[in-house]
């Protein structure tokens, strides 16, 4: 935990990257992807739905290892988009929209009407395209989708708003819908259920739609296990409980993950794993692993992880729901970056 907390602390200097050989090339970073280099277009696959099930298009954004989803009713073609990414280059500060435009193209090509843009949490590793997509979709389909997130986002906004000096007026009211725990909502004729799955962050939600849960950053692929819990408000025991909640779902339910960081032995990112497979194979939560072991394992892992590359920019941007910082008197839109200063200062 020390790493991330020091990266977020205004006082403590940190190198951000440790010299520990385990994390010199962190295993969570896609093995064949170099930092800061866009890797061409996102890949997508569409799963054909069973009866009564949604059509799911998973679109992998390789620079941040994020899975974005388009979930649609195959008959009446209403849809939601989950966790869309805005491209951002921390060297030039350029915000670009190739990944989000790909989602727009897919919705257009399939004739979907997007009613919702759903965030599983305020991401700390990439910028959200929610606000951009809401305005583009309004133009594309003549109707504005609602941006939804968990009801506890207010405390996350306040915490990071204060830390980064984001004026409250830039984050208040930026989300259209704050979901209550277990709230049921409609995506056309489909039902979605907002499941509170805390641990990675306190506000974190999963969305159940048919026999699918879009679990964001709670459980990852079986060879990675689970998400880190060292963000402020994160909790390893809470993540354990959230994982147990997912494992009590029927065996056939598909758990669609928020990220994948394929290790060297695996060439492709994998969007979903069934509940049954998690119970048999997930290295952190499979049958036989006890809570104490999980807590010990997760604690060790979190200590070894460096802060996400886009931590500060992501948090400042995402508590605004993906809206741009307002222009200052010089016409500039600014974000704050804490300096890392050593003892010499
Ligand atoms: N290398 C990534 C790190 C991303 C990261 O920390 N991912 C979080 C989810 S937002 C996580 O849970 N990682 C778990 C792990 O790496 O084991 C970056 O710099 O952005
Ligand atoms: Fe995350």
UniProtKB/TrEMBL annotation:
Residues 65-259 form the Metallo-beta-lactamase domain. GO terms for biological process: glutathione metabolic process; hydrogen sulfide metabolic process. Keywords: Hydrolase, Metal-binding. Residues 1-23, 35-54 are annotated as: Disordered. Residues 9-22, 38-48 have a biased composition (Polar residues). It comes from the Eukaryota. This is Metallo-hydrolase/oxidoreductase. It comes from Lentithecium fluviatile CBS 122367.
